[in-house]
């Protein structure tokens, strides 16, 4: 590499109007601002242009002379045709192990638990091993915190300088890049993808905002480069966001921000994808899909704490292919030929848990109520089909969510985002969204959902408030729910833990 | 200042289970993870705790011994009560010149032009002069580009090291901090505000995303600190965003991103404010308000290119106090006692221009059509009154925008943001929003609005499509509008400039 340092505006008129231009800030952009109207400036401009001796560089027709045309290299030695600058031309599929072999057994939904990202880590370990020169994981010192440490069984953290006496798992050829700078992680990964390889960036959800602007530019680049015929598609930029807003039990308010999704959704629909897998097997299926995809930005938000398993590998594959679907085992009296009284929808790990717990309460206490439970993994399904390639048709949306019945939607992020996605749907005014409304602190998991009215008890209250046939006739149950919230809050304040009645709940089957 | 560097986990058990802990990563967070269940770990924990000799530090009741209680300083010498750490207690109002004296004359709306931020710069120059120790302007090398260079008439750019031969306007005591790092600008300004002083940060609109995460944390800090009784309110954090999405004629797609507004709106409504003044006088009035406010984040988006003046200083003051209001001089047959056939609403400099040009076409071509023109300066007015302190009541909103008539809303930013703000309004399904939908490139101003269907001709087409009484009966006018778009695009492609018919348009009065 040759680095040449030149004066700013080198070879431009040294002075204009008696002021130094060459080598100063005045050479920025327009050194002769008055050339259009001022004869002196125009003369200086002409003199400047002539100083390059165009008569020696071009022939009569304006074509560069042969001596110049012979200079540039040809073929892939041209800078613009260097394969590394068109990484898609070098890109090869990853050798991916079958994710189903890494899935967890789910004898009954909502009873066994796993750390979803820990399970994903076992698969990523083998992705890393099988693709030793084409797959990297980036992490801002959060690989183990996000439970992906199994990758370190087959590689080390990339490290080129001295090792301390007690350092561990450092490796000059390491396939994990850990550096506590989200900017560096993002920049290195973008470069790696642009040069025709694959990777993922795992980050605390709140802190991925640090690279908002870099993400914006990468998404713009993908959108613009897709219009250039000779540019080949790149591997997608995959974000795995964990340590999310709902489980910052120790870190608190500074670590609670699910707003990266809002930033991502402003970019072109042909480029961006958002997934909210609710358990380990759906996370495996989702990430397998992401690592096979091309020229997207995939954002996956997943939990790292022990959380229920809901779907077997087969069911997870089907559910993720659908993107959004009914969980009939969790629904109640959602019979063919009759509309449900209410749709309980969830997108995200914690909202899914609370919706299921609410559905269980409703099934027990209002057994005649027809409740449809819908789970959304692929958030883009909510958009109209003419606004996003994954968007559901109005017919499919209205079939799933109904065109008329109240929908209580428990969402992982800021609640208005769901409105933004669904405002064109027939049933939009019937969709009532609960999500994170910037109410946070250092507290227990259930206290966090209560602070934002996303908890099971409040969801039951929402159902009572929104289903016309309930309302005043369910005042007693509604009051019980309000009391249950108060009891749970009091328990948290007294014990510093969630009430075991809440934290030991399992799906009743 | 004393800086002491200690080993990580200094004084914790040096080894646990035969592995070095003190001075290594194992001392992070929980050095004895098994202390609850493992007797050996628990014994090590007890030995560790006893190593601090608690019997010498506390008396029988658990109270620190008098020798310790005598150590801490008292009053404002306590770290927590140092006034600089509670900057609001030191905060004094700025000495602000009357902004009206800096306003421009507006003999007729939409005929004379000014660079709005240049006009603001004359006022900020005198704000800077009058408050030489309590007001700073931060800019990432964009002060002059954003047209605030008049401030440099009374101060220089802060600079502490060597000066080059051709450097200008550098000053050890400078009141302008220019450094090409949005992070540093933001960080220095936050520190300045936290220690009880005032300031503003001017930035290219697209690149303020660089500090999304820092903004998030500052907003969270303001929200949380407002709950602490002894903390006094700070001066607001004021952003002046210019060089915005619609006027990146030379820079293009990388510089086109109005999405900071979406990030800001995720934060607590008690903290955030967004203003979109359409001309010079409304910008002056808005910024005067911002510099008087406390404990907010104010985001002001304004133009720097020559743009029409619409409101006199008196009218600007009234309009900004209202936040959103009818421009009766631009409306047509919006008579008392009759609903308008359509509401044309605008928020932002360029949308206001296009809405007025559309209103002029409608007035000329469909003189019987009742058209109400509404301008929104204070974006929070669109929110319900129970969601934001500035929110309009439903009654006021329905009076202004009607509860039944079609609303064509031309918006500065991403169009879905207006839906997010208005989805609870009675007329929400009647609100049709045009805005930036991530269609950008390096092109002329009018080509940019055409790319995003925000241009005057498309707005007229939207009116024809949405007003039931028009539609097929106006097919001829609709076709003329489509043709006008094609003509304008062709002209741009041929001449590299906008069609003078468009660019020299003025309000017909």
From TrEMBL, chains A, B:
Residues 1-89 form the Xylulose 5-phosphate/Fructose 6-phosphate phosphoketolase N-terminal domain. InterPro entries: THDP-binding, Transketo_C/PFOR_II, Xul5P/Fru6P_PKetolase, Xul5P/Fru6P_PKetolase_C, Xul5P/Fru6P_PKetolase_N. Residues 304-507 form the Xylulose 5-phosphate/Fructose 6-phosphate phosphoketolase C-terminal domain. Pfam families: XFP (PF03894), XFP_C (PF09363), XFP_N (PF09364). Gene3D superfamilies: 3.40.50.920, 3.40.50.970. Residues 63-86 are annotated as: Disordered. SUPFAM superfamilies: Thiamin diphosphate-binding fold (THDP-binding). One of its GO terms (molecular function) is magnesium ion binding. The keyword ATP-binding does not apply. Keywords: Lyase, Thiamine pyrophosphate. GO terms for biological process: carbohydrate metabolic process. Its cofactor is thiamine diphosphate. Belongs to the XFP family. This is Xylulose-5-phosphate/fructose-6-phosphate phosphoketolase. It comes from Microlunatus flavus.
